Amino acid sequence: MEPITMGRAWALYYRQLHADGRSEHTIRQATRHIRLLQCFLPEHRPNEITHEDLAVFFNSSVARCVNGGRTKRPTSLNCLRSSLRTFFSYLHRAGYVERDPAMLLRLARTGVAPPRGISEKERQKLFAVLAAGRSRAARRDEMLFALLLASGIRISSALALDVGDLDFEDCSLLLRTSKGGVPQRAYVPRQVMARLAVFVGDRRSGAVFRGLGERRLGARQAHRRLAQRCRLAGIHRAISPHALRHSFALELYERTGDVLLVQGALGHRSIVSTAVYARASGVRVRAAVCGANLDA
Predict the structure, then answer these.
(1) Residues 85, 245, 246, 253: which is the catalytic one?
(2) Is the predicted pLDDT of residue 14 greater than 50, yes or no?
(3) Which end of the chain, N or C, is surrounded by fewer C-beta atoms within 10 Å?
């Protein structure tokens, strides 16, 4: 068999990822990572890449730094290692390369960073800016980010909502687009659901959150809008829509102390994914160890 090019190898792997039912996020990430290696070794075919080449790659600034020169987090480098391990394993098992050059790659040991949400002060500043807007887009943004914070649903699920997915009597949402591809139901506080009903108005179909030309709002645009509003609010750190999901989960656990309830609210299939939110505050630890009535 004639050695294949990196472009052909990626096309075959891309087709396999779709056949395996991988998410669009996983496929986009794999695309970025394999192109990064291809830029570093532009003249190499897959069968010419050795484990020494990969070692040099992972010690280079191409792999270790983001644009601007900032060093990547260890978890980001692990994602890159995983992508290349999976890619070359596929090529080897499919018979396109004789040896798997990524066999010696190992993931770095990293600690799990605690999830960080949005503080009460940041929340007040953000929603003050959102409430000051008078355009249709401003009102849409305020409703979208309020819904994320109140329900903990993912941005992709929120943007996929159609008007018919809203059950105002049950205060619930049918999430047809959720991680794993299994439809889920999420619940929303009554006051937020009432605001959502006003926002939707007399519409009976179509996307709940619309962009220009009545088209469904895109995730990239939603990220950009949140970043813009955070800057206007004087919030100088990066806050993503997922940080609002973190805030919801942290507050729900703090209020209930029930990690299984948080798991159900977030729609996690594994309790391991939810365990990162199960953190005991210093106040609760002190009360448990020293006694709840201990004088300050």
Answers:
(1) 245
(2) yes
(3) C
> 93, 118, 144: which is the final residue of a domain?
93
- Measured distance CA(157)–CA(145) in Å, rounded: 13
Catalytic residue list contains 140: no
Q: Which residues are bridge partners to 71 per DSSP?
A: 65
Q: Which of 154, 225, 229, 246 is catalytic?
A: 154
Do residues 152 and 77 both lie within one domain?
no
The predicted structure's pLDDT at residue 296: 46
Q: What is the mean pLDDT of the chain?
A: 89
CB 150 within 8 A of CB 248: yes
Alpha-carbon span 83 to 37, nearest angstrom: 11
Residue 167: partners with Cβ closer than 8 Å, 6 or more residues away: 173, 174
CATH number for the domain spanning 159: value is: 1.10.443.10
Domain boundaries, position 177: 127-241
Is 242 considered catalytic here?
A: yes
Answer with the one of 241, 258, 273 that is the final residue of a domain: 241
Q: Whole-model pTM?
A: 0.69
Q: Hunting for tokens 């990547």 — which residue is that?
A: 72
Q: Tell me whether residue 64 is one of the annotated catalytic residues.
A: no
Contact between 173 and 166 under an 8 Å Cβ cutoff? The reply is: yes
Helix, strand or coil for residue 59? Answer: coil
Query: Looking at the 3D structure of the chain, how many domains does it have?
Result: 2
Half-sphere exposure of 193 (CA within 13 A, CB side): 15
Catalytic-residue membership of 179? yes
Say how many residues make up the chain: 296
Q: In the beta sheet, which residues pair with residue 175? A: 184
Q: Work out the number of other CB atoms within 10 angstroms of the CB of residue 71.
A: 11
